[in-house]
Amino acid sequence: MRVAPAIAITDDMLVSANFAEETGVAAWSSGTNYAVAALTWSATTHTIYRAVVASGPANGGARDPDVEVADFADDLVDTSGMTRKWQVYTASNLWKLFDKRPSIVCENAGSIEIVLAPGEVVDVVGLRNVTADSVRVVVTDPEDGVVYDVTRDTVDNSGIADGYEYYFEPLDQLTDMTFQYVPPYPDATIAITLTVAGGAAACGQIVLGRARRWGVANLGGGLGGMDFSTVEFDEFGERDVTERDMVLDTRLIVSVSSTRVQTLTRILKRLRGGGAALWLGAEDDRFGYSAYGFLRDWNLDFDNGRNAQITLEVRDN
């Protein structure tokens, strides 16, 4: 069992991308009039905003959405006489890869090619909510050159049980992939490429981290789901369905040495408050034994003087 807290990606870590940060929405301008529900974006915060009320020169004046959102979030700024004009809508297309919201995807026609220079040791690369035919990860060190180059296709054969299903079962694709045991070079660049033969490649999250071994994942864990869809009935018994996302809860049971309990407790405390991490209960992408998300709950039982057992409850980010 290994755990890799997600590294926060910053502007200076992004070396290149094969598409513009945002093309579907125009950048905010103080000279533009915005109607209610109009969208604009900021390259500074990599955020798309939606207008709550009309604004601009012909609508009572302009207000920079970056400044407004920061002011309303600051308890030391008196906003009692201000009318909120903007709300955060989503991240820009490129930065949807790093916003810790895998359900909202970055898209680009044909491929997504990202090069990152994290400036620290990374030995795990995770991708979530992927639409692609293949995913390639290349790690290049400035002195040793290419030290890692792995390509994986996304065809999911886990549901094939016999020859009949092999030939007639519809193809399914993996949406989550984790590349473990990436060589730990602190000055390396990491190139991630998603390729699709037709249509748009998509990805909800790219996760970089440094994994730390905790112990051994045991049998007895499990999965659960929380569906945020709603099903309501009117007075005639007709259903009204609003389909929304579902999140998974993963329960991992880990045996650890009792000598490591104090250290692991400190790590668990640092992961409070929704801190995202890759929780890797297996050496591969075995479904149900790994997760990307935040720690909901945990408890520890001492089995004997040498070993302890930690139960982790992890919810999808």
Q: What radius of gyration results from the CA coordinates?
A: 23 Å
* Category by helix and strand content: mainly beta
What characteristic shape results from the CA principal axes?
Answer: globular
| Helical residue percent band | under 10%
Under the CATH scheme, the architecture of the largest domain is Sandwich
Number of domains: 3
Summarize the main sheet: 8 strands, antiparallel
CATH topology of the largest domain: Jelly Rolls
Instruction: Count helical runs.
Output: 3
Characteristics:
317 residues, mainly beta, Jelly Rolls, 3 domains, eight-stranded antiparallel β-sheet, five-stranded antiparallel β-sheet, 21 strands
